[in-house]
Amino acid sequence: MALRPEVLAQVQENPKLIPGLVNEGLRWSSPVKQFTRRATQDYTLRGRRLREGDRFMLLHQSGNRDADIFDDPDAFRIDRRPNKQIAFGYGPHMCIGQHLAKLELRVMFEELLSQIRSIEITGERRVVQTNFVGGLRKLPVRLELA
Prior knowledge:
The protein is an alpha+beta fold. The protein has helices spanning 5-13, 18-29, 60-63, 98-113; strands at residues 34-38, 43-45, 48-50, 55-59, 116-121, 126-127, 136-138, 141-145. The chain contains four helices and eight strands, in the order ααββββααββββ.
């Protein structure tokens, strides 16, 4: 929200928008990077033939920006409906802890957003170097309290 102060103001004015902020933030950041799977049967996906036993990689970040699924996929929109983000996987491979993670994010924003006036990034962002589950290692910010 440091890069989108209008979103900060919008959510502070209407905290009922926080679940949409959480979902869009997960779509945008996609902490799970990839999963590798093996085809259980022959299948054609977008003109590409997968044969039983072939290994393939699901790239969550790419899937969460798929223009066939998301209108204007490179825009950060907390009102995105539907928001079929796959940050925690999908179907039988969906993260069992996703509901707790979303709850923790929602509660954090509910408590934090009423206490701050602005957020300013004050240094260089560093991310965890990984090919599986990533996130921020460092993001210096300055909060102006309300």
